Amino acid sequence: MQSQNRIALKEWGAVCAALEQGTQSVIVRKGGIHEGEAGFRVEHGEFWMFPTRFHQGAEQLQSEKSSLLSLPLAQEPATGKLNLALYSVVEAVLELKDPSQLLRLQALQVLNEETIQQRFEYKNPGLFVLLVRVFRLEHPFEVDQESRYAGCHSWVELSQDYATGNLQPVLNTEQFQEAGQAFQEVVASAQ
Questions:
Q1: Sign of the C-alpha dihedral, residues 155, 161, 165, 166?
Q2: What mean pLDDT is reported for the chain?
Q3: Got the DSSP string for 77-100?
Q4: CATH superfamily of 4-190
Q5: First CA to last CA distance, the chain
Q6: 28 phi, psi to nearest 5 deg
Q7: DSSP 9-23
Q8: Domain-by-domain residue ranges, the chain?
Q9: Which H helix or E strand runs over 118?
Q10: pLDDT in tens, 5-61
Q11: DSSP letter at 179?
């Protein structure tokens, strides 16, 4: 793991809350409007999670997961602030091109079937699924929100590096191996 990092990935706060709880160990990405024809690319192997609330709603989550919206990472922080509490290390990447594989994602993440289908079909059919080992800070960094962070793009370069030394894994080794095995089952079915 890098000792410090300034790269962040924008993701819905509810998804960040699920990552923090350990109920999800994958990130399902399509990419933002400003990422051009190529769409999302896994440009970084480690990054801070940048919780967003734009386009996020209970109707896009699996019904039993809507309570995630009441958790701190899914809610707006103080005006003009951003809380960096989670750090992700990419362990594996799957690019899904076959829509018949989408149902297998339901058990791995909190978005509902319709939301996953919409993401898959947006622009060019396909999705990236990242298996991530998630770490958290007991005391998050409070970061000033900057106008350059706004917009529909996945990656953000923060104004400074933030140390990763005090991070603790969300899942222990055995729990993460179980999550990795579930991810590998999806990979195997996609081949």
A1: negative
A2: 89
A3: -STTEEEEEEEEEEEEEEEE--GG
A4: Hypothetical protein. (2.30.130.30)
A5: 30
A6: -105, 115
A7: EEEEHHHHHHHHHTS
A8: 4-190
A9: helix 113-121
A10: 999 999 999 999 999 999 999 999 885 545 555 667 888 999 999 998 767 788 899
A11: H
b/e 25-50 (16+ beta carbons within 10 angstroms → b): bbbbbbbbeebeeebbeeebebbbbb
What's the pLDDT at 37? 59
Distance CA 24, CA 17 (A): 9
- Tell me whether strands 4-12 and 46-52 are parallel, antiparallel or unpaired: parallel
Strand boundaries in 34-144, DSSP class E: 46-52, 81-96, 127-144
The pLDDT, as a whole number, for residue 54 is: 67
C-alpha distances out from residue 168 to 1, 5, 16, 70, 125, Å: 12, 16, 16, 23, 36
